């Protein structure tokens, strides 16, 4: 995400579409959550309404502190045996300790499955057709998953909505499953994280350690869909409810279209016309589709209206809503 040098990678020269790309995914944590008290425990602790999830469905959710700030942001999936949590970046080390400290006499088992899985992200315009063919006709519906066999290993296909193009998370049993022949037969190109994050920023999807950290409340970093304002009490709920009913979060996640070709650094100030700081750069990259530098920033409410002209490192930056 630091230069425009790889801007053409993964794109068709004829129509600008993103070819089918495969990204090895080692920065992921996978945890199974079971036990007869797991549904009630998760309901009390998490910001999302998860009781209505059916087997094969998932939802984004947060684990907050009492001030409503984000300790964890992850995807929770309903499985036949219970639940499965999928986390990225340093959250995979924080997940068990944070939940274990609020677990007392309940019958809840949290099991780290990370070392027993191998993961890839598949993305591109061809994902729905690939998914439909591989699953024998299933719809590529975001926030759903299917389990099938890949060579001799079980593979879970999680349909995600992270990017401006369709995407899947492929989770295969085994640390080093023998699936190379399987992938090679599909004529899929290798991707890198720079490509992934460029498409993520275009969509406006918050990501741990970029838009999401322990200083943020969900409304400030674009996670309105990861919280419920109708469910009962959970940690941080009072703050979330107050902001919801006031309708005035202090900051909101917005996109920036920035002139020139220089990619601003993370945490670089975003300023208004008077030179007052109204936000900081959270993610920044070159967008091949838009032929522009784009970025995300949590911007003060007074300056976050679409079309507002701001500045980053002396360059004009126009506020935009997502997706770009």
3D structure, described in words:
The chain is an alpha+beta fold and 324 residues long. The chain folds into 2 domains: 232 residues, Gyrase A, domain 2 (2-Layer Sandwich); 75 residues, Aminomethyltransferase beta-barrel domains (Elongation Factor Tu (Ef-tu), domain 3, Beta Barrel), CATH 2.40.30.
Question: What is the spatial order of strands in the main beta sheet?
Answer: 8-9-10-7-1-11
Biggest pleated sheet? 6 strands, mixed
The SSE order reads EEHEEEHEEHEEEHEHHEEEEEE
Number of domains: 2
CATH class of the largest domain: Alpha Beta
What is the first-to-last residue Cα distance? 17 Å
What proportion of the residues is helical, as a percent range?
10-25%
């Amino acid at each position: 995400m630091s230069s425009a040098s790889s801007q053409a990678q993964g794109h068709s020269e004829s129509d600008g579409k993103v070819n089918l790309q495969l990204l090895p995914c080692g920065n992921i944590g996978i945890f199974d959550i079971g036990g007869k008290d797991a549904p009630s425990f998760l309901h009390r602790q998490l910001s999302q309404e998860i009781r209505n999830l059916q087997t094969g469905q998932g939802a984004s959710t947060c684990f907050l502190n009492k001030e409503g700030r984000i300790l964890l942001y992850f995807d929770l999936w309903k499985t036949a045996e219970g639940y499965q949590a999928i986390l990225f970046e340093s959250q995979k080390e924080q997940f068990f300790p944070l939940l274990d400290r609020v677990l007392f006499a309940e019958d809840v088992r949290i099991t780290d499955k990370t070392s027993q899985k191998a993961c890839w992200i598949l993305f591109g315009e061809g994902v729905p057709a690939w998914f439909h063919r591989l699953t024998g006709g299933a719809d590529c519906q975001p926030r759903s998953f299917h389990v099938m066999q890949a060579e001799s290993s079980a593979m879970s296909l999680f349909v995600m909505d992270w990017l401006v193009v369709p995407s899947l998370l492929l989770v295969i049993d085994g640390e080093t499953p023998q699936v190379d022949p399987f992938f090679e037969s599909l004529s899929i190109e290798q991707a890198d994280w720079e490509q992934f994050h460029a498409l993520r920023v275009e969509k406006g999807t918050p990501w741990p350690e970029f838009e999401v950290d322990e200083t943020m409340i969900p409304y400030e970093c674009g996670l309105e869909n990861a919280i419920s304002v109708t469910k009962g009490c959970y940690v941080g709920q009072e703050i979330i409810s107050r902001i919801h009913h006031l309708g005035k979060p202090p900051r909101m996640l917005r996109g920036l279209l920035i002139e020139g070709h220089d990619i601003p650094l993370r945490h670089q100030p975003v300023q208004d016309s008077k030179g007052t700081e109204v936000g900081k750069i959270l993610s920044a990259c070159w967008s091949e589709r838009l032929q522009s530098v784009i970025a995300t920033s949590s911007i003060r409410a007074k300056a976050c209206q679409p079309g507002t002209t701001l500045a980053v490192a002396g360059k004009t930056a126009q506020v935009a809503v997502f997706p770009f």
